[in-house]
Every structure is written in structure tokens, then in C-alpha cells.
Amino acid sequence: MQTKEFRILVINPGSTSTKIGVFDNERSIFEKTIRHDTDVIQSYKSIIDQYEFRKQTILETLDQEGINISKLSAVCGRGGLLRPIEGGTYRVNEQMLDDLRKGYGGQHASNLGGILAHEIASALNIPAFIVDPVVVDELDPIARISGFSLIERRSIFHALNQKAVARRVAKELGKKYEELNFIVVHMGGGITVGAHKQGRVVDVNNGLDGEGPFSPERAGTVPAGDLVSLCFSGEYYREEILKMLVGQGGLVGYLGTNDAVKVEKMIEAGDEKAKLVYSAMAYQVAKEIGAASAVLAGKVDAIILTGGLAYGKGFVKEIADRVKWIADVIVHPGENELQALAEGALRVLRGEEKEKVYPGNFSKVEVLQ
Ligand SMILES: Nc1ncnc2c1ncn2[C@@H]1O[C@H](COP(=O)(O)OP(=O)(O)O)[C@@H](O)[C@H]1O
Ligand SMILES: CCCC(=O)OP(=O)(O)O
Fold first, then answer.
1. Among 137, 166, 212, 331, which residue is least crowded by beta carbons within 10 Å?
2. Domain residue spans of the chain
3. Mean pLDDT, rounded, of the chain
4. Most informative mutation of 107, 158, 211 for ligand 2 (most atoms within 8 A of CB)
């Protein structure tokens, strides 16, 4: 029997680019990273104001490629800073659109994913979905306790790619994702280290503006008392401090670039500071992996390294040398987010999985008074 063919448009808005793809079932027939001029992006007051510009750019690109959007079965976008929800494929609804427009959990380009998917899909009378947004929250209650009763730990991470890569590795191992324990490390602009316990990410660092290893452009965890002193030194505005933590933290703060390839060239040219800082980033990633292995009580089937930094052989070796005693280290460089979006939509279109309704009956344990 011939399987039904679904054509899906997927949209992944990033801070400097919009990645789009068209898939016939699992097969990619077109993918493009549309790079946006920094001046153009910065000319908009807020993320949401970029909506019309990004939509037109997507539609023009599809038109230039000769892709007839009337043949689409669904549109699927990367989900943004919504209310905390469990992983899965969600149908875009009014409540979700409202939260994305407001930036319920903050501002990140991924907030545009669901909105763009909805606008394009509704004109064609087809469904719009998001899959595994950055706010997927499957934290165990114990992981929410920060140690400071006014602040609760939050789950903000590369859920889409972490879950997609974990599913892929499980398949390679001939098992189901839900049968295995993994530590998945996404190393891109931000770095997140997730403890995946039988299909649930029970602990992970907030990779956006919270904690964890420093990354190409984010500071990660910093000494709290010193940060408080800096905030009240009278030298900086709030926005300046936030920018130094996210965007201008990490490699950017120390070395003036978020490009690890450039850092490797600096090291090759004998730059000792670059060598120390790059090694420190690997060291902090390894420490976070060690912490995740304790979360999983040492029962770790594999450590998976993914994201752009996983292309750096020396960087990967430094991490692996420190953690390979815990479990095998499997490297899947880059990210597969477009494919993951298409597969998430397909699972629902084929009836293999039920679409979830936002915000669902998410019941995290409140630890705040
Ligand atoms: N071949 C490579 N070797 C080392 N680092 C790389 C390589 N390719 C990309 N990177 C680095 O990966 C980082 C970006 O990762 P990526 O996953 O594309 O980020 P994001 O999607 O979060 O913007 C950058 O620091 C980039 O320099
Ligand atoms: C950690 C939330 C998602 C995120 O930071 O994505 P980027 O690294 O692509 O900015």
C-alpha cells in the first residue's frame, strides 16, 4: 500500500537568520538559511515587529524557488518562550499566539516561529504546529529548587535538537528513546546540558540567561555575590549588565568573537589567552556533564555532543577526555532542527502521536511562596 504523502513547510527563526525547509514526508526537498542584515534586524524595536519582514522574506524565497505553497499539508515553526510545557507537537492556538506576541517568558527570535507558521497556514486553511519549544519543562521537582527561595530554576534549552538527536541515537542503538538515559549537550550560541531519563529531560541548565557553562556569547553561571555588587556599583544600566551576560558574554567577552573557528585560528597562531579561555569552556561543559551524570545516578547509556561547536575536533577531545569514564561519547555535530520540526508534524499528521493542546494541564510543583 502506498503511504500518504505530506508536504510540510518548516520555519526556524534565529537571531540573525531564518532557516526554512520543505519536506515531502521525511525527505527534504528544499532547505535554506536566509541571513538577515544585522542593521535590518536591529532597526526593529522588538522581536515581534520583525514579523511582517520575515514573513515576506519567506514567501518571496519560496516563490523564487518555484515552490507552490498551495500544495502544503501543514506548516510547523520552532516554538518560543511560552509557558512551561511538556515536550511534543502542539497545534498553534489563540492562547499560544497571544503568549508568543507578548513574549510570555521573554524575548527570543523563536517567538516568531508559531506566529509565522499560523499566518501562512491559516491563509491556506491547513494546520500549524510547533514542536518541542525552548520552554519544554520536564524537570523533576527536586531540580527546581535553586537554594534561594525567591528564585526557582527554569527549563530553557535547545529542546528541539536535544530530543531529535537523542531519538536518533536511540534508533542507532536499536532501542527506544524512552528506554534509555542520555546526557545530551547542545553547543551552539548557547550551551545546554540535559539529563534525559527515559525520554524526559529531568534536569537541564537554563541556557538563555541563567546558568551552566559559558558559551560563545553567554556568560552562564557567574559568582552571585560579585554579580550583585556589579549591578549596584552605579557603573552600569540594567540593560548593559544583561547584554554582558547574554550576547556579549562568554567567548565574546574574553576574546571579542563568538566564532569558535576564529578562536581556533587564534590558538594556532600562538594566542595563549585564547587557548586558556577555549579550554575553560570545554572544562565547564565537562563539569556540567559530571553534574548530569549524578542526576542520573551514574546510569548513563551515552553522552551525546551536538551543535556547531561539536565540529571542533580539539574541543570535543578536551571534553571527551574528562568525561569518557562516565559513558561512551557520541558526536553528532551541527543541528537537525528543520528535520526535527518536519518529523514532529508528521507524527501527528500520520496519527502516530496525538497533537497536544497548549498550554495543557502542565502541573509543575510550585516552590515559591
Ligand atoms: N567547524 C567548526 N569547528 C569549530 N566550531 C565551529 C565549526 N563550525 C561552527 N562552529 C562554531 O559553532 C558555533 C555556532 O553553533 P550553532 O549550532 O550554529 O549555533 P546557533 O544555532 O546556536 O546559532 C559558533 O561558535 C561557530 O564558530
Ligand atoms: C537555550 C534556549 C535556546 C537558545 O539559546 O538557542 P540559540 O543558542 O540558538 O540562541
1. 331
2. 7-138+338-357, 159-334
3. 94
4. 158
Residues 50-69 have pLDDT tens digits of: 999 999 999 999 999 999 99
Is the pLDDT score of 368 beyond 50? no
- CA distances in angstroms from 143 to 155, 195, 286, listed in the order given: 10, 11, 19
In angstroms, the CA 360 to CA 66 distance is 38
Instruction: Report the nearest atom of ligand 2 relative to the CA of 188.
Output: 8
**How many A from CA of 231 to the centre of ligand 2?**
25
Residue 264 amino acid letter = E
- The 3-state DSSP class for residue 359 equals coil
Whether ligand 1 lies within 6 angstroms of the CB of 199 is answered as no
Q: What is the DSSP string of 226-267?
A: HHHHHHTSSS--HHHHHHHHBTSSHHHHHHS---HHHHHHHH
**How many Å apart are CA 34 and CA 29, to the nearest integer?**
16
Q: Do 7-138+338-357 and 159-334 share a fold?
A: yes
Q: Is the CB of 309 under 6 A from ligand 1?
A: yes
Give the three cell numbers for residue 169. 541515537
Q: Which atom of ligand 2 is nearest to the CA of 15?
A: 10
Distances (CA, A) of 173 to 330, 350, 352: 11, 25, 21
- How far, in Å, from the CA of 122 to the mean position of ligand 1? 35
The angle subtended at Cα 194 by Cα 192 and Cα 196, nearest 5°, is 160
User: 299-322: per-residue pLDDT in tens?
Assistant: 999 999 999 999 999 999 999 999
Non-local (6+) Cβ contacts of 108 within 8 A are 15, 47, 80, 81, 134, 208
pLDDT tens string 213-223: 999 999 999 99
Using CA positions, which residue lies closest to atom 2 of ligand 2? 157
Ligand 1 contact, 260 CB (< 6 A): yes
Residue 44: exposure state from Cβ atoms within 10 A (0-12, 13-18, ≥19): middle
Q: Domain spanning 7-138+338-357: which CATH class is it, in words?
A: alpha beta
Question: Does ligand 2 have an atom closer than 6 angstroms to the CB of 161?
Answer: no
pTM: 0.91
The finding on whether 307 has its CB within 6 A of some atom of ligand 1 is yes
Which CATH class for the 159-334 domain? alpha beta
